Amino acid sequence: MRTASDLLSEARAALAGAPQEGLGEERSSRWRGRRIVRVGSAWHLGVLLLTDTRVLATAEVLRAADPGRRGYTAESARARAARREEALRGGFAEGEVVHVGWSVVDVSAVDAGGSSGPLAVVDAVVSVRWSSAGGYMPLGTYLRERVELLQTPGR
Length: 155
Hints:
Elements: H1 4-14, E1 21-29, E2 33-45, E3 48-50, E4 55-57, E5 60-63, H2 75-89, E6 97-100, E7 103-104, H3 107-111, E8 115-116, E9 119-122, E10 125-129, E11 136-138, H4 139-151
Parallel strand pairs: 1-6
Antiparallel strand pairs: 1-2, 2-3, 3-4, 4-7, 5-6, 8-9, 9-10, 10-11
Helix pairs in contact: 1-4
């Protein structure tokens, strides 16, 4: 059985030079207010974020932006605009993609036959749950598809 570590290492090698997206964390202070600050970058592979050393499960994805107009028809639109502004205030460039609320995936637990985040061993195959409503698919196949998408932008 190929391990999750092996598959992810191969993906990292294939992604060398491919564009990465920002990783952010929420910060708050009395003087600077709420903001989302940069803590790194990663390749966005669907439900996974792959850094040089870690694997993360995605959560909230947003694009840093000025909130623009203030009249919103829905409270949810106002909240999304505020989150985009927090990323801008935290140092992300206008229009930059930011991942917030991600969680670390324990790859060693998956290599040992267990599960962590969206990764699990299913019928002796390292697999990924590609959506909360979807089933599992082999991680090797998933990574090949996602790496190809990142390497050929505009597809």
